[in-house]
Design brief:
By secondary structure, the chain is an alpha/beta fold. It has 12 helices and 20 strands. Strand 9 and strand 10 form a beta hairpin.
Length: 418
């Protein structure tokens, strides 16, 4: 066992660099991601609220408008929101009703309600409706190819992007002719949702997801103005670059400021504005922005979010849109910063053989606390997160080797190997 400072320095540096390489892969990668989520939860933003508003179909909304909604309920939403002049009206739910599940009187009035909703969609400037990709029930039967928005400027390996072979659910054709379609698929194997897919694949072609399609409509961009560099970024026109991983996912900044209120609050605010009174919720924020109608009731909050609470897909999409609009992109620190941190830990380990065991533990605690504070300060300033696994591993190696090494009166004259 090494007892000289030089030997321990070399061993600590070697362990840190090895962990730095392994932390790019599971299971160690999830540890670094958890540390990044911790920094994001405890950061503070000074940016103004993003031009996105989440209108929540919460539990109180379902008292007067029970789920599942009919076209008439969605028509009430359009009638209430359009006077506030949003640029994009988005609904992540699939407007495809199961007629047999409706009451007899609702089935009879459904064609009339559908016409009212279609007229409401036609009056909106831009509308985004949710859809879902999937797979055919019979794998041997290939469904007909359907028209979807495609991203043509794609570079890099797309093998890690989820691929689907069928459109599982989508709005009727009458609605699709008057609105854009956004695919709201989310991975089902995530223990904690801290990112959202911006691109998906359908029959080998790369297509935009619900969140990316909403931003494209808001910026008035076509798919030809979107360039995707897998594992690096998505260039949205000439204005911004959105960082993505190899699977086309963007880390969501849940702390990015945005506006949210209930569906009942929207209906009341529309009545108050019509009567010339000041509304009780910030409805003026909707002008020129994106308005997302989504469920946030208890039954819809099925996703374990990185914010240490359960949320609905609509909440995740609204946070992703706000992240892009505010450009509060969470990035991993460059590799040289991690190498520097490991090198500093290795240099400090040079003095470890001279310290008492209790002093070594205290010294390690102070160093890790200082590193955590520095990581928090850097994240608050630049939204860049410093990795934890490599530095923590390097410190633990130095501490463990000191704990199993007998105390010495002074510095040994030659390396002592047990």
């Amino acid at each position: 066992m090494f007892r000289t400072g030089a030997q321990l320095l070399f061993l600590t540096l070697l362990a840190g660099l090895l962990l730095m390489r392994e932390s790019r892969h599971e299971p160690l990668a999830s540890w670094d991601n958890d540390f990044a989520d911790f920094l994001a939860r405890n950061s503070r933003h000074r940016a103004a609220p993003a031009p996105v508003t989440l209108v929540e179909i919460n539990d109180s909304s379902l008292v007067n408008h029970p789920w599942p909604w009919t076209p008439l309920d969605f028509s009430l939403f359009f009638q209430a929101v359009l006077p506030f002049q949003p640029e994009v009206v988005a609904i992540d739910e699939v407007l495809d009703w199961e007629r047999l599940s409706l009451a007899a009187d609702q089935q009879q009035k459904l064609p009339q309600y559908e016409k009212i909703l279609r007229d409401s969609i036609l009056r909106a400037p831009k509308v985004l409706l949710g859809a879902h990709l999937g797979f055919p029930e019979d794998p041997q039967s290939i469904p007909p190819l359907q028209e979807v928005p495609l991203l043509k400027n794609v570079r890099g390996d797309v093998s890690e992007v989820p691929e689907f072979t069928a459109i599982e659910r989508q709005p009727p054709e009458d609605y699709r002719l008057s609105a854009a379609i956004g695919f709201a698929n989310l991975p089902s194997d995530r223990a904690r949702y801290n990112s959202v897919p911006l691109v998906l694949r359908y029959r080998g072609e790369t297509i935009p997801s619900f969140a990316l399609q909403a931003v494209m409509l808001w910026l008035q961009l076509t798919s030809d103005e979107i360039a995707v560099e897998m594992g690096s970024h998505i260039a949205i026109g000439q204005r911004m670059r959105v960082p993505i991983d190899a699977a086309g996912r963007m880390r969501v900044d849940f702390g990015s400021p945005r506006v949210a209120f209930g569906f009942d609050d929207l209906l009341l605010a529309a009545e108050q504005m019509e009567a010339g009174r000041h509304p009780g919720v910030p409805v003026r924020q909707m002008k020129g922005g994106v308005v997302v109608l989504a469920r946030t009731d208890k039954g819809a909050r099925t996703l374990p979010l990185a914010a240490l609470r359960n949320g609905s897909p609509g909440e995740l999409f609204a946070a992703a849109i706000a992240t892009i609009q505010n450009q509060t992109f969470i990035r991993r620190a460059p590799a040289w910063t991690e190498v520097t941190a490991v090198a500093v830990a290795a240099l400090l380990s040079f003095r470890v053989p001279r310290l008492k065991k209790f002093a070594t533990l205290a010294f390690a605690a102070v160093f890790l606390s200082a590193y955590a504070l520095a990581a928090m300060a850097i994240f608050n300033r630049w939204l860049v997160w410093l990795p934890l696994v490599s530095v923590l591993g390097a410190v633990l190696v130095a501490v463990l080797f000191r704990l199993v090494t007998p105390d010495s009166a002074g510095r040994p004259k030659r390396p002592v190997i047990l």
